[in-house]
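On clarity, I found the account of how folds are encoded harder to follow than it need be. Since the whole study asks how a given chain folds, the encoding of that fold should be made plain. For illustration, here is how one protein appears when written out as sequence plus structure tokens:

:::
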Amino acid sequence: MSTVTHALVAVFTLLAGVIQAADRPNIVWLTTEDNSACWYRLYNPEHGAPMPNVERLAKEGLVFNHAYANAPVCSAARSTIISGVYGPRTGAHFHRAQEKVKMPDGLKLFPAYLRDAGYYTTNNHKQDYNYEKSAIIGVWDESSRKASYRKRKQGQPFFHVQNYTMTHEGQIFNDLPVGTRTIIDPADVELFPYHPDTPLMRKKYAQYLHLNNQVDARMGQLIDDLEKDGELDDTFIFHYGDHGGALPGGKGYAHNDGLQVAMVVYVPKNWQHLVPAERGTRIDGFVEFVDLSATVLNLAGVEIPEQIDGEPFLGKGVTLDELNQRDTTFGYADRFDEKYDQVRFLRKGRYTYWRNYQPFNFDGLHNFYRYKQPAFREWRDLAQAGKLNEAQAAFYQTRPPEQLFDIEKDPHEINNLADDPMFAQVLIEMRRELQSRIRSLPDVSFLAETALTPCKGDVVGMLEENRVRISRLAAIADLQLSPFPEARSRIDHALNAKDPMERYWGLITCSAFGEQAGDFSEKARQLAASDPNRLVRTRAAEFLGLTGAADPLPILLKVLDECKDPIEANLILNTVVLLRDNAGMDVDPTIVRQSDWSKLKGLVKHRVEYLCGGGASEKTPTK
């Protein structure tokens, strides 16, 4: 073989390698924690954190103006991302899982499909999924603190996730090192209208903005590595926060500040044909975390499984006109560690809608981890002292069953429009859309979290068998939205139903109406005394306690003494804490310490510590 022939063979071999390497794009995710869009200069030019590396990605990519996490807390949000499935239809939306759940039959966590297609899949390093360990088998080539795309075979396309923790809520429990000068002066921060204007709150704002600037520099290092490795022109880079911001009232709450995130996608030069707009474009169409799996698979040219709930917002078949017509997003919050509060969120166009299924609850109900944050404790202390204005005090007060906000005029959702006749039609449309979504999932929370244990993780199968039942339970809950005289007969029917969950939701609805439902007090006493279902007896005691019709504590202590299940006990203790902090129920710490149920494992310990005076146990006055 001649020298020329050898040279030609070498050239063709090199070209073949290049073609193979460029056969599919690489995809990298740069994720930060507890980080909503309003903290970025890119979304908030006057008061957001300077993030030059993210801004560079934006100039050479796409900025999504309306990107949303589906859940406002880590494990629930990440479970939605990795599965492509809405959490309430798999049971993966409780944070953190007390019972791990199964993936729907025939569906894998989406990186497994990339791996099957020849991608090198790596995760550095956080997972925090609420799915069984068996679901993670075959998903990652490596998931560790050392995982890197650089370990792949030559020419192999890669999908790499890099997670940064610098903006996590835990980073603002303490102050920055002494002498640190924050990038924005505390005097210059713009406080959310629901936060009290105090030196501590301003310091924590400035600290958090500073951390965003710092994490941007870390992300810049990986972007530089991709460029040095010659990969930038073939690599889509997604940046997003894993849910809303860490300051009080964001993370953990299905509100706009808890759900709207930054979403920036760098578009590589060699793959511009896979996006529907020019680099540097801002996209107004709505995208959700549930769409991320479908989007990555579509970019990679991998078939999207039918069971995935999301739809791609990049890749073949996506047009700018269609993308910009998307105007709806759905969110959910339920249990954050030991604290229960079932809330569903819908944004459609310029309006956001909150459905508070337990409106007698209040956002500031104690949570062990949440109140480690100094700003949270100060906010509560000011509420107790009566030193907050109306907008600031709302966090520590009960709520209406539904709330409506014009997010364009009211970005932090202060002015509830639900009772304004001018917005009656908007309210009805939003209500109907949410009701339709709840029933179509269907939503497992209407069976309570205790339903997950007997189904052994197969929530999807259990829900299909209970689809009609859940629709019936949701309808009982929605009686809260009717005038009491119209709802009365149907509440009575629910309280006398054979299904314990109908009685359960009938009592929750009585508590939502409060003293208007006083005629049901005698029925509630009967249920509290003798119903065979402990959760029904708990909700009966809750109604009696909230309305002052009877002392609920003896009932609740008896129910707890019978309880052996830590999941059930934690749910009951949520009512105990609510009644103590909202209705003045006196709980003797000695009785708590001497009880058998106080020794139960799991999240019960946090409620026990709080009731015994640990964890800042001051009672919080509410309406």
Remarks:
- The chain is about 35% helix and 15% strand.
